[in-house]
Amino acid sequence: MNEKVALVTGASSGIGEAVARRLAEQGYVTYGAARRTDRMRPLAAVGIRTLSLDVTDEDSTRDAVGQILAETGRLDVLVNNAGYGSYGAIEDVPIDEARRQFEVNVFGAMRLVQLVAPTMREQRSGRIVNISSMGGEIYTPLGGWYHGTKFALEGLSDCLRLELGPFGVDVVVVQPGGIRSEWGTIAAENVVRTSGSGPYARQASAVAGMLAASGERDSSPDVVADAVERAVTATRPRTRYAIGFGAKPLI
Ligand code: NDP
After folding, report:
1. Which residues line the pocket of ligand 1, CB cutoff 6 A?
2. For ligand 1, mutation pick of 43, 58, 61, 81 (most atoms within 8 Å of CB)
3. For this structure, is 241 an active site residue?
4. Which of 11, 44, 97, 195 would be a feasible disulfide site paired with 20, CB 3.0-4.6 Å?
5. Backbone conformation region of residue 82, classed left if phi is above 0, alpha if psi is from -120 to 50, else beta
6. Of the listed 13, 31, 87, 132, which one is catalytic?
7. 187-228, pLDDT tens digit by residue?
8. What domains does the chain contain, in order, with CATH numbers?
9. ipTM above 0.90?
């Protein structure tokens, strides 16, 4: 097979869905992966191959990558996008939930890196795109555990770039700002559930309002697809593509 092959996690919604569509339009044999496979039917209808994937599950990730390699024999692009925002005051978020936040946003991404790196090294080519956040460089109250995962993802990506660079594999970080998707609703629900009553109630109400706000302020997931397209097609990609609030699609 001569065509390049891409895997996008979290393709059942928002940014991942837009990125999967974009890579397919660019001619990649594209695999979209998520737990809710029913939500990816529209992607399957346009030729995107859909996979059931829970990034926190060892077997699930191994099976998904195994299936791609069995079907195509290669893997050129991994977009680690699956993630959510576990919002609430640091002292209010139960440690088990904080651990789950890291399991999805950090270990999920790195589990996939470990599975695809041998193939990319052997190919002596590949792009790993990690969807971080502006929240991987800045921080807000009641977002500590979420920011912690994105700061971790930034640091891991920088180390990974140094490690894999000599093998011809590029590692790129994309940092979205406010993007219209289900992310804000889920994060707002989390902050209200976790810190909506008690000492942080006032902060929680303000943060929930900010997270739930969408429309004019937030950008279309297409602006993130623009950045990912650049990250995978540029001859020499930048290490980071930052997307500010209110960014407009380039394409
Ligand atoms: P959505 O909530 O719309 O989509 C999140 C995706 O992640 C879904 O497809 C979901 O699929 C998937 N996902 C969650 N948990 C798992 C899991 N355990 N295994 C596999 N897939 C999982 O949010 P966005 O599209 O906005 O978010 C995508 C990424 O962008 C996240 O990493 C987020 O942190 C980041 N980001 C988003 C911003 C925004 O303003 N929207 C801003 C900055 C960064 P399913 O539930 O079907 O498994």
Report:
1. 9-10, 12-16, 34-36, 39, 53-56, 81-84, 104, 131, 133, 176, 178-179, 181-183, 186
2. 81
3. no
4. 11
5. beta
6. 132
7. 999 999 999 999 999 999 999 999 988 766 789 999 999 999
8. 5-180+218-242 (3.40.50.720)
9. yes
